[in-house]
Design a protein that fits this description.
This is Heavy metal transport/detoxification protein. Helix content is 31%, strand content 35%. The protein is α+β, with helices and mostly antiparallel strands. A 4-stranded antiparallel beta sheet has the order 2-3-1-4. Bound molecules: copper (II) ion.
Amino acid sequence: MDQEITLKVGGMTCQNCVRHVSTALRKLEGVREVEVRLAEGDARVTLAAGGATLGEMLAAVQDAGYEAQAV
Ligand SMILES: [Cu+2]
């Protein structure tokens, strides 16, 4: 079953940032869908069972140069 996970993302200032964060998350195992919202400063990830861990998602966003934390 798919899971919906929301991450708080800090440091995004424009649509390029949104794209960087989306791309980083989409590369992860089991990620089906990513919706990053600039105004809200969050990312909603739809994840297949057995996919990436929360830690991997946070690390991916941080490696892309943004702050991330679990909600
Ligand atoms: Cu930007």
